[in-house]
Automatic annotation (TrEMBL):
The record marks 120 as: Important for catalytic activity, responsible for pKa modulation of the active site Glu and correct orientation of both the proton donor and substrate. The active site is at 14 (proton acceptor), 174 (proton donor). Keywords: Glycosidase, Hydrolase. Belongs to the glycosyl hydrolase 43 family. Residues 313-495 form the Beta-xylosidase C-terminal Concanavalin A-like domain. GO terms for biological process: carbohydrate metabolic process. Coiled coil: none annotated. This is Glycoside hydrolase. Gene3D superfamilies: 2.60.120.200, Glycosyl hydrolase domain, family 43.
Length: 498
């Protein structure tokens, strides 16, 4: 059976996975977006369905005034004695915490804080002991993967924080995960940073506390030496055994806009790479230590179909699952109906690191047609292709006393483009159809009224890329209303991926 990567498309970075009975569960980082920590389930590691989020209440996470790409960093999901745990970092407050639930389809607990620094926390359970790991420095100031034992009921540290492995020498040692396989302890980590030098390394030991012996051929997985290959940034992996006893790595990577164009705007996505153990208990991964856009695997039944949703509408998405807000929204400004959205603007604009009236869905592939009908009753509203408050492309309808205009405006750092605009005589009940046609290298903008389609310019995707904007997120297709008094109705929304 052949499967294609990514297995989860769009900005869903830092995946972590666990298996309970015949179901796999996966979580991702979410930064300034709310709800936080998207949660997925799968029966085959190939087809994933989002079932909710882990952080759904402001009492669990405070996102107000955090910077873009601050907030919720990489999580780890684990299961022990009937309870799910997700541990993560609020990178803005530099606090590590975990939450738990006994019902994966329900609410999660309030945070339990652990007094160990670093990021990318991991939990490892063995009998009645619980080990907490993260990167950073131990109590003696020694850098590396740092481990302590905790009381899982309170989060209290039971032992000092000790560095148990210092990696293979790459910069930014992070994303530790501990496993016990055939009586040995395996410690996985990412090195090189989450860009073009990213790689996965590991070591093993006869004790959970080490000393750890590094895999002799580290990195076990990286694409850093594949020049001219559009799949890059491979790392931040979690190891999982499937129901047939085969091993896999679920990890992040990103797709450049072209073989030789080192820009990615869709964010870091979730990839699946096969793993093979040798008779000495070392494992290798992928195609000669690299991951590919597609794998042929006799491990998966030929009957398995990799489904892909190509059309997203108000009707076939769930406001509480597929959509997200910037930081904590004022829900009084949102009326979410099955096939209609009413928005009321507030004082925050898209150019501020706050919570404008905005609801978004992650762009999941390069080629798409995005459209919706928009009635602006007052002020300004529209569609934004949003990377952060300094990098977004907006297609909006502005209504004032002189009438209506459709405006295309590009914000790229400190540069604001000269607006591309078209004036319309529109009465209050008339709507404009806004259309954005997305391709690998550009977006093209259109307005359509009474079957007349008017082009409103184009813009390159690379200026919304992580390489230009920085940070850890990806483009989110946002519907917004801007300014106090702005009111608008969105309908017939659709994203048709091609
Ligand atoms: C994540 C860490 C990282 O926690 O970036 O660059 C952080 N590496 O593994 C956010 O994705």
């Amino acid at each position: 059976m052949r499967y294609n990567n990514p297995v989860i498309k769009g900005f869903y970075p830092d995946p972590s996975v666990c298996k309970v009975d015949d179901t796999y569960y996966l979580v991702c980082s979410s930064f300034q977006y709310f709800p936080g920590i998207p949660l997925f389930e799968s029966k085959d590691l190939i087809n994933w369905k989002q079932i909710g989020h882990c952080l759904t209440r402001p009492t669990q996470i405070q996102l107000e005034q955090i910077s873009s790409s601050g907030g919720v960093f990489a999580p780890t999901i684990r299961y022990d004695q009937g309870r799910f745990y997700v541990t993560t970092t609020n990178d803005t407050t530099r606090q590590n915490f975990y939450i738990w639930t006994d019902n994966i389809y329900g609410e999660w607990s309030e945070p339990v804080f652990v007094d160990q620094g670093g990021i990318d926390p991991d939990l490892y359970f063995e009998e009645d002991r619980v080990y907490f790991m993260s990167n950073g420095e131990d109590d003696e100031g020694i850098p590396g993967i740092v481990q302590c034992q905790i009381d899982i009921a309170s989060g209290r540290k039971l032992t000092p924080s000790r560095t148990i492995w210092q990696g293979s020498g790459g910069r930014y040692l992070e994303s530790p995960h501990m496993y016990k396989i055939n009586g040995r302890y395996y410690l996985l980590a990412a090195e090189g940073g989450t860009e073009y030098g990213h790689m996965e390394t590991y070591a093993r030991s006869h004790s959970v506390n080490g000393p750890f012996e590094a895999y002799p051929l580290n990195p076990v997985l990286t694409n850093r030496n594949l020049g001219g290959y559009e799949l890059q940034g491979v790392g931040h992996a979690d190891l999982i055994e499937d129901r047939q006893g085969n091993w896999w790595l679920l990890h992040l990577a990103f797709r450049q806009i072209g073989r030789w164009q080192t820009y990615h705007h869709l964010g870091r996505e979730v990839f699946l790479t096969p793993v093979t153990f040798d008779e000495e208990g070392w494992f290798t991964a992928g195609h000669e230590g690299t991951t590919l856009m597609t794998f042929e695997s006799d491990r998966l039944p030929d009957s398995l179909i990799q489904a892909e949703q190509k059309l997203y509408t108000f009707d076939n998405t769930d406001w509480n699952i597929d959509w997200c807000y910037l930081r904590h929204p004022s829900f009084a400004n949102y009326t979410l109906e099955p096939n209609r959205l009413l928005l009321r603007g507030n004082e925050t604009t898209l150019n501020e690191a706050g919570s404008p009236t905005f609801i978004g869905i992650r762009q999941k592939d390069f080629d798409a047609e995005i459209s919706c009908d928009l009635q602006v009753h007052a002020g300004q509203a529209g569609i934004t292709l949003y990377m952060d408050e300094q990098h977004h492309y907006d297609l909006s309808v502005d209504r004032d006393d002189s009438g209506c205009k459709v405006i295309q405006q590009l914000t790229i750092g400190s540069i604001r483009s000269i607006p591309n605009e078209a004036a319309f005589a529109l009465d209050n009940n008339q709507s404009v159809t806004l259309i954005i046609r997305a391709e690998r290298e550009r977006y093209r903008f259109f307005a359509c009224i009474e079957d007349q389609e008017i082009p409103l310019g184009s813009a390159q995707t690379k200026y919304l890329s992580s390489e230009v904007a920085g940070g850890f997120t990806g483009v989110v297709i946002g519907l917004y209303a801007s300014g106090i008094g702005s009111t608008a109705t969105f309908s017939n929304f659709q994203i048709q991926y091609i």
